[in-house]
Amino acid sequence: MAGIQAIETKENIFNILHEHREQIRALGVYRLGLFGSFARDEQDASSDVDILVEFAPGQKKFDNFIQLAFLLEELFQRRVELVTPESLSPYIRPYILREIEYVTFSPHGLESNGWYARSLDPCLLWGRLRDRLGCRNDQGAGAASRD
């Protein structure tokens, strides 16, 4: 599409998903997870957008998957790598789950504060908390709470 610029940041992606939430929900999407270079803020002009899609029960259909892929590429003006949880290799799954940021589409709008809910892997959250509290990597889970 002429005149439309490619998205450049993670925040652009989340804003676009918010603006088009009804279209996305109509395709049976329960939640989308952003991972890869955009999730890590390491994208460049040639980066694609890596998205993990989870469909609502009974909505995981080939047509919904393809329509979502085309919609996201049109909205982002970038190549989109769309995957499902079942298609993830067990070898790369842990790396993806460490960095993924979710946008959840509930029947009543976007979950959480009415905008979008971004959730991170619990291990990543624990690591960030441990770093803030000044715990060493070799201390156990209860070490920070004892002080």
In brief, what are we looking at here?
Belongs to the MntA antitoxin family. The protein has 147 residues and is an alpha+beta fold.
Question: What does it look like?
Answer:
It is built from six helices and five strands; from the N terminus they run H-H-E-E-H-E-H-E-E-H-H. It has 147 residues and is an alpha+beta fold. It has a single domain (10-135), classed as Beta Polymerase, domain 2, CATH 3.30.460.10. The N and C termini lie far apart (58 Å). Belongs to the MntA antitoxin family.
- Distance from N terminus to C terminus (CA atoms, Å) equals 58 Å
CATH domain fold name: Beta Polymerase, domain 2
CATH architectural designation = 2-Layer Sandwich
Average of pLDDT = 80
Portion of residues within helices: 25-40%
Low-confidence stretches: 109-121, 138-147
Spell out the CATH superfamily.
Beta Polymerase, domain 2
CATH C-level category: Alpha Beta
Biggest β-sheet description:
5 strands, mixed
- Element string (H = helix, E = strand): HHEEHEHEEHH
Number of distinct beta strands: 5
Compute the number of structural domains. Answer: 1
Give the helix/strand class.
alpha+beta
Name the overall outline. globular
Spatial strand order of the main sheet? 3-2-1-4-5
Q: Give the strand content.
A: 15-25%
Tally of separate helices = 6
Which secondary structure elements does this structure contain, and how are they paired or packed?
Blueprint: H1 10-19, H2 21-26, E1 29-35, E2 49-55, H3 62-76, E3 80-83, H4 93-99, E4 101-106, E5 109-110, H5 122-133, H6 143-146
What brief labels describe this structure?
147 residues, alpha+beta, disordered C terminus, toxin-antitoxin system
